[in-house]
Known about the structure:
This is Methionine--tRNA ligase. Is required not only for elongation of protein synthesis but also for the initiation of all mRNA translation through initiator tRNA(fMet) aminoacylation. There is one protein chain. By secondary structure, this protein is an alpha/beta fold. The protein folds into 3 domains: 199 residues, 3-Layer(aba) Sandwich (Rossmann fold), CATH 3.40.50.620; 118 residues, Beta Complex (Methionyl-trna Synthetase, domain 2), CATH 2.170.220; 149 residues, Isoleucyl-tRNA Synthetase, Domain 1. The strands form 5 sheets. It has a 5-stranded parallel β-sheet with strand order 3-2-1-13-14, with helices on both faces. The protein has a 4-stranded antiparallel β-sheet with strand order 5-4-9-10, with no helix packed on it. It has a 3-stranded antiparallel β-sheet with strand order 7-6-8, with no helix packed on it. β6 and β7 form a beta hairpin. α7 crosses α8 and α10 packs antiparallel against α14. The protein is elongated. The model has no long low-confidence stretch (mean pLDDT 95).
Amino acid sequence: MKVFVASAWPYVNAVPHLGNLIGSVLSADVFARYARMKYGNENVVLVSGSDEHGTPIEVEAIKRKVRPKELTDQAHEYDKRLFMDVWEISYDNYTRTESDVHKDFVKKFLLSIQSYIITQKEVLPYCENDKIFLPDRFVKGKCPYCGFEDARGDQCDNCGRLLTPDLLIEPKCSICGSKPVMKETMHWFFNLGEFNDKLSKWISESKTMPENVRAVAMSWINEGLKPRAITRDNSWGIPAPFHGAENKTVYVWFEALLGYISATIEYFKSDAWKEFWFGKDIKSYYFIGKDNIPFHAVILPAMLMAAGEYHLPDVVGSTEYLLYEGQKFSKSRKIGIWIDEAESIMDIEYWRYVLIRIRPEEKDSNFTWREVIRIVNTELNDDIGNLINRVITMINRYFNGEIPQLHHELLDDKDMALISLMKEAPVKMGDLFEKGKLKAGTDEILQLARENNAYLNLKAPWDLIKTDVSKVANVLSISAGVTYTLSFMLSPLMPKHSRKIMDLINVNVDKWEPLQDPSILKGKKVSKAEPIFSKLPADIEKKIPDILKQVREEVEKKRPVLLK
């Protein structure tokens, strides 16, 4: 089994905020870490990269009178360091759309599907002042659907509808603010409608695609797919490879989708990349925000169908929106937390755990500091950390620091029930993860820890030790087995803290295999008990505004100019 994992390519014109992170990057990493334990490191690849072409960067470069690549070089390196060094994202390859491998592959791929590409004339806004056509974000205006005054030529930030420049009401040039004229231009289109029936059959018959993604894709398909422009009249991007398209570039969405393949090619540097894209023994997972569903569940599979034998997406794990204290993230209004601010506020692995626990899988979810405090102080410290501390302390106290022997003949129903749960929890968590349900999967961690805490309270080994040492041995042997199990279940979320737990019971767990019998831990020497987690101050909620103000002043100084 080969497992391909990808996160949507972050656009480099802004530092990602927590909502961006959980929607794609962190979700993909947590799943990939699980998959490596389940299927083996050599059978899993995790890729993504900086999406750096297109109009937003070009507009910014024109305003600053610099080359676009000067801006994106800095932004790419900054984001890459944040993801891999700060947030512990385990990319096998985090590349960029300026990669030569990517640019060459995109051109060859588009030429290979040229039979599905047609030309059409379009009438588009043209700025007579700047002497350029105004695709996508080169033009702004009022949204025809919701009336939002500052909609872009490709999408409305208010209602989320995809747009084209000609739909905008009262359009104006993003560079000089003048009113454009409408002018005819030739463009190359991917004839998406040719795949209407194939896409409908594929998505409706899929047994792995999440229902929310299936619903959005079918909505598009049922409306009747139309040709979509694959070229743009801007200069910052991959030159269109078609005859007669010398002054055109490839639309960023088409090339970014192809980046999943080019990033795999770039990583392997050999034909080994094909094992993840061709054949039947493959599973592919894409982690995205809900606004990207049409691109990943309609346009990407259509392009793959056009090219021949590529493996189509199995699971497109889409999140809803994450709000910050009930409001949308907004840099201009200073609402939210950005990923280069987070490490100065709280341990990054706490952030990783918290964000997965509030991941908006079924509906929009709300980040509140009250909930963060509850998750860290109750779930991590009380439910998990305190359990492990109790178990280690009692093994040291009653059995000279060695995990005791399990006496199978003395097991009762309560013992057997916890052993069963210990074996079942990782299986259930894995099943949910493979459906793209990461938050739901982590519920299994909490249930196991809480059941073990209740079991200890019921068995009361501190009293039982006075009358029956063998039964206490069973209690702590089983609880050590649960600690073992929790250590590797936490590993995808909190790799460093997981390692600490493993060290406490002197094990090294690198496979996703449920412990079938706690007795195999017999004789393992445990370390001295020490806190795995620490609680957040109860008054941190009141202090956050001041903490954030101070952090932002420091972080702002370090950001590349494009990201300020």
